[in-house]
Fold this protein.
Amino acid sequence: MADEEFVVTPYEVRGHIDYDRLREMFGTQELTPELLARIHHLAGGELHPLLTRGIYYSHRDLAATLDGFANGRPFFVYSGRGPSGPLHTSHLLQFDLCQWFQRKFGVRMTIQITDDEKFWSRGGLSREETVRWGLENLYDILAVGFDPKRTQVFFDSRSIAALYPLAIRVARKIPYSTVKAVFGLEPSANIGWIFYTALQTVPAFWPSWAEGHDVPCLIPCGIDQDPHFRMTRDIAEGLGYPKPALLHSKMVPGLLGPDVVMSTTNAADNALFLNDPPTVVEKKIRQAFTGGRTTVEEQRRLGAVPEICSVWAQWRTRFAESDAKFEQVTRDCRSGALLCGDCKGELIERVHRFYAAHAVAREKAKDWAESAIVTAAPKAL
Ligand code: TRP
């Protein structure tokens, strides 16, 4: 594979991703300083770190959604998770941003748990496993701090009666040739997988359908999910619903660094899973790939390279709570003042603290998770 070659689809992410080129290939818009300033203003003078630090970097139709909001037309946020195993810290990014929108803009949240998708697209998983992971993942997601009064969940296999009347109409608008071209599915792909994208579209239209008037939708997601929603947007008008707006994030690099080929034996070491005990967290961070030099002397003299460092990526996406802290870590790394061992030690402590707080929030989320799952269609249409 040539250096500049990369692949990004909902079912495969591979190679060194050139994010500007990806944006051009996908035809999305740049998240500009002007747009960020407008979000800052509408949020009452605050911006989420994921927005200020360049993790979210691309969008579709965000400006129109913000205009609508400013003119009294609230949007809702929608994101989801395909439950193939435990969540890791980077899986929470899209939900962190959604929760921030809910808190700052007072908007509603829709979460989709696609146990069906993972059963169809991952041959090795049983139905019981995808359902079990779906519930486990849901508790972790709700623990991010969603408001029970303004949050609804579609858990596909359990919410199908609520989704299906709309899925029927969505599915008729999507030609098989489009699915094949967009997702690159093999001829041997099972037909569940082929149909699945219709179900990922449904939540984007669901409130408009249920309420009988346009309810704009904003979807924060990894840019790998854009192909699904390009289709959603293409068919929206034909069904009489507003096109959802999108906010795309970059993919967070794994702990083992860009050049390690993933296999089933090392994949577990590549991320901090939320069910990892403290000793495992510590081991993973201690062995994580950094941008450090080979000797202490060299590092003091030349400084390290944060941009390629997987530990810096963790500071950047979650564990530097303030911009001042983030800038300090970055500056001291680059200057050689901060050595990798010390940086890792400090990160380990923060991760432990986060896990402890998360565990408490997760237990509380179990009290209302069931009641958030939508099981009935709004009308018999
Ligand atoms: N397909 C996504 C995954 O594999 C799950 C998902 C469903 C999703 N609906 C979504 C992701 C909306 C982002 C936004 O994880």
Q: What stands out?
A: The longest helix spans residues 340-372. The two ends are 50 Å apart (CA to CA). Strands lie at 6-9, 12-15, 29-30, 56-60, 76-81, 108-113, 151-155, 217-222, 245-249.
